[in-house]
User: Fold this.
Amino acid sequence: MKGIEEHDDYFKQKRNAANVLGQSCLKKVVAAFCIFAYGVPTDALDEYIRIGESTALEALRKFVAGVVEIFGSEYTRMPNEQDTTRLLATGASRGFPGMLGSIDCMHWTLKNYPTAWHGMYKGYKKEPTIILDAVASKDLWIWHAFFGMPGSHNDINVFHRSSIFARLAEGKGPQVNYKINGHDYSMGYYLADGRYPSWATFVKTILEPQGNKKKYFAKAQEACRKDVERSFGVLQSRFAIVRGLARLWDEDTIHNITTACIIMHNMIVEDERDEDDYNFNDMG
Ligand SMILES: *[C@@H]1O[C@H](CO)[C@@H](O)[C@H](O)[C@H]1NC(C)=O
Assistant:
């Protein structure tokens, strides 16, 4: 709240021309959080904190923009050297040296989208969907989240999508060195399912595995990949707004809301992270 208040003058409590004190920063932030929790502004909001619906919506819009601007660089960062060391140690301890996380995507259907959007989705009979592709690690931290609305004509999203795919494909990021069966490798990888392209950075499961070795591999791969599903589940249960998205918002705001949810999700992960996770000494 302090960060948001310092960042955006909108959150500073002011007096109007009639010398009446406006809403406090705390009320505006609580209003924003109520919408995160319930998905939409409710009458309860009005009764509980005495803030009107339009003020609550405005507060949320400004709140997410602030969160993205203030905390985005830290909580949506590329893995740094320390992160990479931690991710690699976790991967190795689960039988996947060189593994940096798992990638998957989550879809929602947009319901009751505003009429203003109909034009953007001309030709699409079905309700438009939102896709969130993301990499997650065992601690449920969400890395490289990218967000798209297929059928929308917003080039920014297309750009986001391809640039992040490209980043993963090129294996850009910190240097990663590991050995498997006597071979040296210098590029980390992500566990993925069959929908992802066949690139060296995506290690997929074996369909209809034959033999114990392959069966074992498929089972281990699928077990680790559950990390992403779990983090999506946690994200959605923490922030009902993620499930109820697009009822009220324009595309830019949806982008900011989703990013702000991921940022706050990662803050919680960091806060709850077991200190033992940092202790690599006992990892064989
Ligand atoms: C989304 O967030 C960015 C960065 O914080 C901000 O500049 C932009 O105005 C926000 N968009 C909307 C629609 O609020």
